[in-house]
Amino acid sequence: MSFPNAGRVHASISLLAFCLLAACSQERSGETGLPPETPPADIDEVMALPGEAVVVPAEWAKAVRLAGGGELATDGESLYAIAPGRPGTISLIGQAAGEETVFQKITVPPAHHEPLKFERLSPSQISISGADFSVRASVGAGVPFPDGQAEFEVDGVQWRVSVTPEAGTLQQGDVLISSHGPLGPETEALDALAHSPAFEAMVFAALDLACAPEAERLPPATSAALLLPLQLVLKHKIADRKGAFEYYAEASACGYQPAENPDRRPAPSEVMVSVPSESLIPAAFGYFPLDSEGALSLETVAAETSNGGQQ
Questions:
Q1: Element (H, E) at 163
Q2: How far apart are CA 112 and CA 57, in angstroms?
Q3: Which end of the chain, N or C, is surrounded by fewer C-beta atoms within 10 Å?
């Protein structure tokens, strides 16, 4: 399977295509296509995930540049600013009333990681807990690659995960998010999860398990279930998947990047978590429940950038 747009987007589109994009934005917004006559009263502050594709307001799409790094990209309809893959802030600058003004700041905060407690409940079941967070992962039916299940509880909210080697679901209440196909109304639920403290708790439960002594000989189906929330967010919301994984891996208790592991954190088991070069999405051995349909796929566009812009 070829997963689209693996890693940092590197393609570029022609000036004509960018002009067509601006024209589409003009038609959708009902504006003249000219920059706003007056600057916004308040700068829009966005807290983003590492490598997240953040939509640029349509009225600014024709006259925008970046300060502090970052990239602009398009899916053929909307314009996106790609958040940094590391903690930091970029600014979107547009023309208003003949002057340049910062109209949006996009910030990737440092990862919030707390020590986790692991408890082996049986040969095929493990419990992981932290502050206001717990998850129990287990193995169901199937040979040689059984189903994996996980039940997360964060701040009293429960999420249930079920995976097979080729498919998976994430459920909270009546909302069911499938690993296959594009998102529909579930988009809002996945977005809310991705920007909540629950998401980082889920990510580090999966990444830290891979080097925990309690996980020795634990079936990879358990890790596959724990990884699904991260996989779904990487599929649908992240343009720089390589940068995003490195962001979380750097904060993990496991040493995913040996060259950048001066504190000699224990090496993760590649059976529990590996990163395929095709997709740059971490997966457990024998399990890749995502398909490529509906995955975020962008192309970069030429844009004036500055490292000395207002921060």
A1: strand 157-163
A2: 29
A3: N
What pLDDT, in 10s, does the model give residues 254-291? 998 776 667 788 999 999 999 877 778 999 999 999 99
Residues in Cβ contact with 99 at an 8 Å cutoff, skipping those fewer than 6 apart: 39
Cis peptide leading into residue 144 (ω within 30°): yes
* Chain centre to alpha carbon of residue 121: 31
pTM (2 d.p.): 0.83
Give the pair of three-digit tokens for residue 20: 């067509």
Q: Which H or E element spans position 17?
A: helix 15-29
Answer for the pair 228, 284: CB distance below 8 angstroms, yes or no.
Answer: no
User: pLDDT tens digits, residue range 58-112?
Assistant: 877 766 888 888 889 999 889 999 999 999 999 998 877 677 888 899 999 999 8
Sign of CA dihedral 1, 3, 257, 195: negative
What's the gap between Cα 231 and its chain centre?
A: 8
Provide the token pair at 44: 């829009």
Separation of first and last alpha carbons in the chain? 41
**How many Cα atoms are found within 13 Å in the side-chain-facing hemisphere of 2?**
3
Contact of 159 with 198, CB cutoff 8 Å: yes
